[in-house]
Amino acid sequence: MAHQVTIKDIAKHLNISVATVSRALRDMPDIKPETRQAVLDLAKEWDYQPNVLATSLVKSRTKTLGVIVPDLGYHFFSSVIKGIEAEALYRGYTLLLTQTGESYERELVNLQTLSRGQVEGFIISLSQETSNYDHINRLIRKGIPIVFFDRDAVGIDVSKVMVDNVGAAYEAVIHLYQNGCREIAFLAGPKSVTVSNQRIEGYRKALQDLNIPFKDELIVHGEYNLDKAIALTHGLMNLTDRPDGLVVVSDRLAVGSMMALRSKGISVPDEVSVVSFNDEPICSFLTPTLSSVAQPTTEIGRIATSLLINQIEDGQEFYKPQVRVLKTHLVIRESSRRK
User: Fold this and answer.
1) Using CB atoms within 10 A of its CB, is residue 241 exposed (0-12), middle (13-18) or buried (19+)?
2) What domain of life (predicted)?
């Protein structure tokens, strides 16, 4: 079924009344055993779910949105949430906010908890562990509106608010090249995270346009934690052809990279220049200060919320998803500006 399955669909397919289907699903008496079994079998095959949300909305709109993010400790996510909250309040909605801690299992639990009739739609940034999207597809089949931001999921047809990650990474590599770097490495996130993969795409495109040979060993992947960034950076610096430029997928990981470089006595930016993403406040307080790609975080939140509420209030069974891609800009500081 291409839409949320209802008892009317089951009744029509089995050529019985809606009342009969309802009684069978609730295990009521005076239903023939074979009829009850046919209803239960078809309900299972079509993934029928009682729409608790729709039932509650007939009585009273909740006007509540569910927001799921990987980590509230990241400045990026907390800034996006400011935009989400501002737009939601302006439109008369409230938020239920949860974080996954980059855990797929916690993402499942959070979705299940919030979808039990409490929220009218979801704004989601997927965890780094998420590669199975069955839980998202179940919500889509139930007709619950969803908007993704920052992290995409290939093949999931929902509205999305992203930034031009390919262009941002391209600009970062060009900047390093213009400042004398010729052996440029990329410290990436997990291979399952689309935003990281898009930045790798921009990195590779820039190398191609600059006629710099691509080397597999100069792209390293790791989880979003400091210790992993330190270890990966040590590995890069131990290569025979040591990188003189480093693009890091996020500021948090870039802190680990700069710690690793300092521990090895490598000067930043004179020996290795560093550029990262998100432009968190910490960038201005590091020594040297960190060059980073700034994103319109508040705007991301506002647009994501507007798209979600528009879909909720449109009320159409088949809503054409919208994709917004926003521009970024590179904030150049000491870590990549050679004298």
Assistant:
1) exposed
2) Bacteria
In this structure, the answer to whether residues 39 and 130 fall within a common structural domain is no
Q: Are residues 314 and 210 in the same domain?
A: no
Cβ neighbours for 43, distance < 8 A, ≥ 6 positions apart: 5, 10, 25
Structure tokens at 262: 């300092």
Q: Which residue has the tokens 């199975």?
A: 132
Question: What are 38-89's pLDDT values in tens digits?
Answer: 888 888 888 887 654 554 444 457 899 999 999 998 899 999 999 999 999 9
- The position carrying tokens 């020594």 is 287
Question: Are 248 and 257 within 8 A, CB to CB?
Answer: yes
CA pair distance 210, 61, nearest whole angstrom: 56
Q: Is 90 exceeded by the pLDDT of residue 149?
A: yes
Mean pLDDT for 234-246 is 97
Asked whether the predicted pLDDT for residue 216 surpasses 70, the reply is yes
15, 32, 48 - which closes a domain: 48
Write the Ramachandran bin of 180: left for phi over 0, alpha for psi from -120 to 50, otherwise beta: left
Query: Are residues 132 and 237 located together in one domain of the fold?
Result: no
Instruction: State the SS3 of 68-93.
Output: EECCCCCHHHHHHHHHHHHHHHHCCC
pLDDT, tens digit (0-9, with 9 covering 90-100), for 82-125: 999 999 999 999 999 999 999 999 999 999 999 886 799 999 99
Could you list the residue range(s) of the whole structural domain that residue 234 is in? 165-295+330-336
pTM (predicted TM-score): 0.79
Strand order in the sheet with 146-149: 94-99, 64-69, 121-124, 146-149, 159-163, 323-326
Task: Give the pLDDT confidence score for residue 294 in this predicted structure.
Answer: 97
The distance of Cα 199 from the centroid of its chain, to the nearest Å, equals: 14
Query: Can you name the residues that pair with 188 across neighbouring β-strands?
Result: 221
Cα distance between residue 242 and residue 263, in whole Å: 16
